[in-house]
Write a structure and sequence with these properties.
- The protein has one domain: Beta Barrel (Porin).
- It is about 10% helix and about 70% strand.
- It is built from one helix and eight strands, in the order αββββββββ.
- An eight-stranded antiparallel beta barrel has the order 1-2-3-4-5-6-7-8.
- The longest helix is centred in the N-terminal third of the chain and has 17 residues, at about 1-20.
């Protein structure tokens, strides 16, 4: 899994430079977010949510949590193609005021499903194919913080170990709890 190994290396490097000392790493609060958008290849509209802990590190804030996204599209006939992503998400805030800029990386499991419907005379046959795989999900979010609420646009690349990789753009809205 070359994509997963690369994701681990990037996360290690970001963590190494972001935490100047172990004493500075304590939770500063949590964020709950919802996102919806469009993938460019194969999968169409999608949405999901995430829960993130914010860890201040002196200069930057590190974000570590969980995220899930589901994409659905129609294919020829009455079939559907879907992609479910669920895993861990981490990132670092590069700029926080007045514009919010975050670099992010997600890694986890993916489930790529395709359902094809074949109609012959009065017979309807449904064929389902599901592939379980891993994904890496690098991206950047540009947004604005409005008190406890934040809004933004995310550009992400969905790199699947097995299947069709694609770019996606999401609108994100969330709220902060804690400090």
């Amino acid at each position: 899994m070359p994509g997963t190994r690369l994701a681990h290396r990037i996360f290690f490097i970001v963590t190494l430079f972001a935490f100047p000392s172990a004493e500075a790493a304590h939770a500063q609060g949590a964020e709950f977010s919802f996102h919806g958008g469009q993938a460019l290849n194969e999968y169409e509209r999608g949405g999901g949510g995430g829960v993130i802990l914010n860890l201040p590190s002196g200069i930057r804030t590190i974000h570590v949590g969980a995220r899930a996204t589901y994409h659905l599209s129609t294919i020829e006939g009455d079939g559907e193609k879907s992609l479910l992503l669920y895993g861990v998400d981490a990132g670092v805030t590069l700029v926080s005021s007045p514009i919010l800029v975050r670099a992010m990386m997600g890694i986890g499991r993916a489930q790529d499903s395709e359902e094809t419907v074949i109609r012959e005379d009065d017979t309807r046959t449904v064929i389902t194919r599901t592939t379980d795989t891993y994904y890496a999900h690098p991206g950047v979010m540009i947004g604005m913080s409005l008190g406890i609420v934040f809004v933004g646009l995310e550009g992400r690349y969905i790199s699947l170990d097995k299947g069709v990789s694609t770019s996606a753009v999401y609108a994100t809205v969330g709220f902060k709890v804690g400090r």
